[in-house]
Amino acid sequence: MRLARSFDIRVSIGTNAVAITREKANELFTAGLCGAIVSIDGSEDSHDEIRGAGAYRRSWQGMMCLLDASVSVRVNAVAMRSTRAGLPALACACEEAGVTLYVRRFIPSGRMVGCVSELLTVSEYRHIQASLQPYIERGVVDGHYLDGGCGHCSAGSTGMVILPNGDVQSCGFLSDLGEPSYGNIAREPIKDIWERVLSSAYLANSADALASLNGASLDLPRTNCLAIAVGVQRAPIRIRRQS
What we know:
The chain has helices at 2-6, 22-31, 44-51, 55-68, 87-97, 122-137, 172-176, 190-198, 201-215, 226-234, and strands at residues 11-15, 33-39, 72-79, 100-105, 141-143, 161-162, 168-169. It is of the alpha/beta class.
């Protein structure tokens, strides 16, 4: 962080915050940390069911330590079937803490590969939007599909991911879904790797999967997320339409 800040690069982290103490938060701020995105999965019950008993309280305590150390904080929550009921209560808690809540779409990747039953339908997103509308109007809540749009996919266009071993991927989610590495920054210039990403057949094939998904007769929101398209393609989904 200190090295990045010496080049005037803004530094932020994604964290579950369970290891953040008051001392660690102050150390991170002094090193140049500008912001932190803390992952909270809905209500305390749903969060602990996913991440282990007591995880919610430890995450919340760590987040408050970051705020006390003058680190800007945003909470991220993934909207899926098992967490959606707790989103209004989480929005209320975030407002009381003075932090914003960003509701992210669920992507069937990583440990959730194949769990397409967690994807929400259009009508379910409308219900979430209605339940969060007061918080949206007050600027507490923002997120995917809550404004009726389908969002932007950064893979191979405005973003890429460098893995700890130096391998370059267009997207961390696509990496977990089998996207090949485009090169390694220890062996060639990042510019050459980026040009390879832009001409990737994998991204072109993923775009075909995206068009197929958005054209299917499924009650899913239209999306520009290549990882969702690839994830659904790997595990075909049938979602019953809501009445």
